[in-house]
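Case study 2.
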Amino acid sequence: MSVNPVVVHVVRPYASEQEYLAAEAWSIDARGMLLIDAEPLPPDTAVLFDIALADGTKLIRAEGRATTVISPSAERPGGLRVRFKRFGAATKAFIERAVKSRADADRPSQPGAERPSQTDFERPSLVEVERVSLPEVRQSMTDLEAYVAPSPPLFAPPPLESSVRERIPGPIAAPANREELLARLRDRKRTG
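Prediction:
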């Protein structure tokens, strides 16, 4: 018997994904999240939920299971803690951004140290600079790879034999000498 999941819609009062992450990335981890201000549900209840911004943009659409109810504290709001079961690629990407944002926020900052700017992350590495600056070397390597044949492995495992036979569709006709074959089998059985 299948139980229908409880549908939970959570709307958060933020105008952008960045605002939401700055304020509530702490509520999301790789395995689950806190549905802030959601109604309590019994543990192990199947839940279909989404998290939307004030303008209706849905950041997360997922399926999960209720784990616990978290009471609000002086520092943070409470809600329903859920464990993720299934979600799509867009939700996965958002969860990864939230986890990274949370890790960045948890990292202690050192006095006098500046946070790297976005352009610092986009700077190519020395290897990439060399690749870009030496196109003729890259072309010669590509040409060389085309001439070099892969060497055979030292040990090749035997091919796997399938234990499943292909099924032949349709009825199988009896052999023309069916009675003769049956008589031979009966004789073998009697003689031993």
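Strands lie at 6-11, 32-36, 46-52, 58-70, 79-87.
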